[in-house]
Amino acid sequence: MSIEWLRDLVIVIWGLLSTAVLIFIAVTVYALYRRAKPVLDSMNTTSANVQRITTCIRDEVARPLIEVAAIVQGVSQGINMVTKLFRKQ
Fold first, then answer.
1. pTM, rounded to two decimals
2. pLDDT in tens, 47-84
3. How far apart are CA 40 and CA 32, in angstroms?
4. How far apart are CA 46 and CA 37, in angstroms?
5. Mean pLDDT, rounded, for 21-31
6. Cα angle vertex 41, ends 39, 59, to 5°?
7. What DSSP string describes 30-70?
8. Counting Cβ atoms within 10 Å, is residue 5 exposed (0-12), middle (13-18) or buried (19+)?
9. Burial of residue 44 (number of CB atoms within 10 Å: 0-12, 13-18, 19+)
């Protein structure tokens, strides 16, 4: 056996081991992806539900409260303006 033959043998073994490790990593990543996909889908569904709920709350609760607060503030400022006009100086 010459050194060239030994060198070639090491290169071939190294290539086979590298290929096996890459295949193992690819299979592991794919298995993790398959396990995580339902969780990610569930999180997306939950996120969409939360977004719909917050939109509904904003439309049904927050906007009417803001409108009532604006009306109350306007009436309060109007009353203050009238009382300033009739106040003795």
1. 0.51
2. 999 999 999 888 888 888 888 899 999 999 989 988 88
3. 12
4. 14
5. 97
6. 120
7. HHHHHHHHHHHHHHHHHHHHHHHHHHHHIIIIIHHHHHHHH
8. exposed
9. exposed
Residue 39 above 70 pLDDT? Answer: yes
Residue 86: per-residue pLDDT: 83
Residue at 66: amino acid letter: I
d(CA 11, CA 17): 10
Separation CA 40–CA 54 (nearest Å): 21
| Whole-number pLDDT of residue 89 | 60
